[in-house]
Q: What sequence folds into this?
């Protein structure tokens, strides 16, 4: 395809909005065409400049506290009838809500620790020279490879008709526990899927929806005694759709 | 951030909405260009969203929903009402008068120049660019926030980028002439 026809698609390409086949052919074209490559570079630089400059304004701690309190307050109002019935003193309510918020904070800290560890694993693996130990797009090759290497088995979804492709897998560890690390590709992005045994410990600290940390999105859930985590730099919707495929397969 | 049916009962509004606090504030500040107005906008957004949460449609993108409430709150605010809107049928005119891409531009331009250009960009363009570059939303998500079709998102982004580049070229020339 000539440059003119690609030109209209360059922004969709740098925005990660091209279909995987289009993106692959454009990448091929970019290797041969310095004009288009320079154009793409310029657009990526502009994107990066706006992203850096755009993350500019930080809210004050007071505002955060104000918003948080307004939400907690409305939550208490909904449940206030119960307290009237048992006529507990207001001080007890305060003590209880403090304990609850401490517990919630504790849960969040645990979750953040697990999520940041998984994000580190994801980044470190992609940065390594050989990210996967078993290279195959076939789930029937990748799954048996893990036999004898990790103490559990799992099912992988059929990806026909989706934009996801399986790249391969490797054995990984989280909190001294062995697990499977699978890498999927969506457009130009790599997504990590981690599977561990559910040991009822800190890996239990899951969010109820995808959580964004440092421009990575992490989603986690528990099924059939296994813990699943999906980590990637794609949008929450893409993480959700891969998670759904995995949930349906597992 | 779609919320599957089985989990929505367990997920409280607070758990879903608070992680978005910093992103929403940054966006509000860029829209209003004023710290105290941004604070008001964020507080009002959370209050409105909390009231409307029971009507939140399952399967809808929660983040896009929150940003949409914030943006609507801004549009009805004093500053928002004064901000100019843009019609979406001028693609060709703008594209043909836009300067040619200059790779050197960004290498020489400093962050302050990018910031100034972004500040001067009209609100409609600024918000679309921020949702794409800073929030890293997909075209589909941006379409949900702005309540416009995906095709319009693409043309707005195109024009926003051209306009930003034109502003930067202008600033660059100004700086070169010591203005």
A:
């Amino acid at each position: 395809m000539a440059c003119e026809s690609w030109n209209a698609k360059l922004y969709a390409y740098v925005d990660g909005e091209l279909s995987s086949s289009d993106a692959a052919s454009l990448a091929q074209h970019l290797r041969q065409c310095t004009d288009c490559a320079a154009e793409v570079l310029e657009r990526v630089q502009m994107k990066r400049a706006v992203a850096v400059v755009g993350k500019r304004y930080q809210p004050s701690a007071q505002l955060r506290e104000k918003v948080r309190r307004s939400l907690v307050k409305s939550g208490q109002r909904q449940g206030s009838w119960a307290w009237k019935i048992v006529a507990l003193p207001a001080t007890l309510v305060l003590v209880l809500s403090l304990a609850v918020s401490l517990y919630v904070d504790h849960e969040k800290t645990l979750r953040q620790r697990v999520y940041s560890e998984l994000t580190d694993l994801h980044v470190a693996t992609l940065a390594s020279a050989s990210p996967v130990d078993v290279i195959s797009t076939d789930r029937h090759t990748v799954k048996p490879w893990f036999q004898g290497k990790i103490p559990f088995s799992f099912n992988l979804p059929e990806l026909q008709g989706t934009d996801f492709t399986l790249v391969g897998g490797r054995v990984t560890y989280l909190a001294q526990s062995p697990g499977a690390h699978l890498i999927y590709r969506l457009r130009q992005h790599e997504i990590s899927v981690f599977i561990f045994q559910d040991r009822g410990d800190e890996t239990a600290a899951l969010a109820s929806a995808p959580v964004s940390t440092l421009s990575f999105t992490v989603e986690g859930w528990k099924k059939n005694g296994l813990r699943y985590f999906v980590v990637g730099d794609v949008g929450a919707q893409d993480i959700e759709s891969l998670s759904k495929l995995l949930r349906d397969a597992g | 951030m779609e919320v599957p049916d089985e989990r929505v009962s367990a997920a409280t509004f607070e758990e879903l909405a608070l992680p978005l606090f910093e992103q929403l504030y940054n966006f509000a500040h860029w829209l209003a260009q004023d710290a105290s107005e941004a604070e008001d906008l964020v507080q009002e957004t959370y209050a409105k969203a909390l009231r409307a949460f029971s009507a939140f449609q399952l399967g809808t993108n929660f983040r896009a929903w929150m940003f949409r409430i914030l943006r609507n709150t801004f549009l009805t605010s004093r500053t928002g009402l004064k901000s100019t809107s843009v019609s979406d049928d001028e693609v060709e005119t703008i594209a043909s008068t836009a300067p040619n891409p200059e790779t050197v531009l960004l290498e020489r331009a400093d962050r302050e120049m990018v910031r100034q250009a972004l500040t001067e960009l009209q609100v409609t363009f600024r918000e679309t660019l921020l949702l794409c570059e800073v929030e890293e939303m997909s075209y589909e998500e941006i379409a949900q926030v702005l309540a416009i079709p995906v095709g319009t998102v693409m043309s707005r982004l195109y024009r926003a980028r051209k306009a930003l580049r034109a502003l930067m070229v202008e600033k660059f020339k100004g700086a070169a002439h010591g203005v």
The longest strand of chain A covers residues 164-174. Residues 79-85 of chain A have pLDDT under 50 and may be disordered. Chain A touches chain B through 48 residues (CB under 8 Å). Residues 113 and 247 of chain A are 24 Å apart (CA to CA).
